[in-house]
Design brief:
Elements lengths: L15 H4 L2 E6 L1 E9 L4 E7 L3 E7 L1 E6 L5 E4 L2 E5 L4 E6 L3 E9 L6 H8 E2 L3 H19 L9
Antiparallel strand pairs: 1-2, 2-9, 3-8, 3-10, 4-7, 4-9, 5-6, 5-8
Length: 150
């Protein structure tokens, strides 16, 4: 069974930007992205281009890296993501999660930083999103409500 099929959150469909709001912080040579994951939601992240540090400040979630088996993450926790990692998370509770990335030229334009650090649309991400949409359709056919984002 696909590990994504184990998730059966009973919430409404919303736009991913609504459920994973971000704040941005800078200091010389460092960019920090603070993300807010909402309980009972799935977040399919982009593939990262460089290694970076993750700090989970509060909350808990199941984390799948590159489509692997889910790992339970409970705050507080610090871990490293490698270049090429793509993360999918199912949030058990409201979560605050920091990504700490190098920023040698002190860039502050979010679009420039996103293009520098992530690849938004890869075959792996497309496959995950397609699986989630199929699960969503199955839930609708059974008259359940499910949220699935990308």
């Amino acid at each position: 069974m696909n590990t994504l099929e184990t998730y059966k959150p009973q919430v409404k469909m919303v736009d991913v930007k609504e459920i994973c709001d971000t704040e941005h912080y800078w200091q010389p040579g460092v960019y920090i992205r603070k993300m807010f994951g909402k309980a009972s939601h799935i977040y399919v992240g982009a593939e990262h281009k460089e290694t970076h540090t993750n700090i989970v400040v509060s909350g808990s979630f199941d984390l799948m890296v590159n489509g692997g088996e889910p790992q339970l993450i409970i705050a507080p926790m610090v871990f490293t993501s490698n270049a090429g990692d793509q993360k999918t998370a199912y949030f058990h509770s409201d979560t605050v999660w920091l990504n700490i990335m190098s920023n040698e030229d002190d860039e502050t334009d979010i679009e420039v930083l996103d293009s520098r650090y992530v690849i938004d649309d890869t075959p792996q991400i497309q496959s995950i999103v397609q699986t989630l949409h199929k699960l969503e359709q199955q839930q609708i056919e059974r008259e359940d409500n499910i949220w699935l984002g990308q």
